Amino acid sequence: MYQGLCREKFPGVANFPFKSVWRLKAPSKVNGFAWLLFHNRTLTHDNLKRRGWNIVSRCVLCEANTETASHLFRSCEYSTRIWDRYMTVLSVGGPFPIDLQQLFGCWCREDPDDWLDWFRYLFLHGFVWEVWKERNERSFKDTSKAWQVIFHKIGRTLLHWIAAAGQINDQNAKDWRRLLALACPPTRNNSI
Q: Which residues does the UniProt record annotate as the domain Reverse transcriptase zinc-binding (predicted)?
């Protein structure tokens, strides 16, 4: 019933994996954040302005554009560098989705049936969570990290979540070796 009401009010949510967002083996606050992000309810500058806040809107990651959720996670130069590196390391093809609803819709299934589907979904959560945390660090603590640091932080976060969920097995060992490339900082011989 809830899905039907949402689809009437928000036509773009037809492909959102309603059930699996809460079953994903990520912390509840991350799943909740993904839910808010999909519904454009995160406290980005554009949403704060709609609530009556008088602020100058600028993306703290690239310092070039107005801060919106779509910009932060899809078109910001900082975020797209992380995304492009992920696509290269894990040999994932395809263009970056046009908007966040398309990203969630095409990457997240209601019932992920194989390890790669499950991992894509988990990566998406890790990606938006770590980029959001970096945005907040820059906004509230006036500190910043290079995109490469966040890229590796995403990998470490995913390893932590996956190990906690007991998802490591012999069938996906090759994929784990590629995932380790996300989590391990580059050496002189293996730079980004």
A: 14-83
Q: Which residues contact 71 (CB under 8 A, 6 or more apart)?
A: 59, 65
Number of domains within the chain: 1
Q: Maximum Cα–Cα distance for the chain, whole Å?
A: 55
Q: Let me know if residue 117 belongs to a domain.
A: yes
Which stretch of DSSP H or E encloses residue 130?
helix 115-136
Sequence-separated (6 or more) residues with CB below 8 Å from residue 121: 17, 20, 24, 107, 108, 109, 112
| 191 inside domain | no
Cα distance from N-terminal residue to C-terminal residue, the chain: 47
> pLDDT for 60-75, tens place per residue?
999 988 999 989 988 8
The reply to whether 188 falls in a domain is no
Residue 99: how many other CB atoms lie within 10 Å: 15
Of 176, 82, 183, nearest to 124 (Cα)? 82
Here the tokens at position 47 are 């949403």
pTM of the predicted model, to two decimals?
A: 0.78
The domain in which residue 135 lies consists of: 2-183
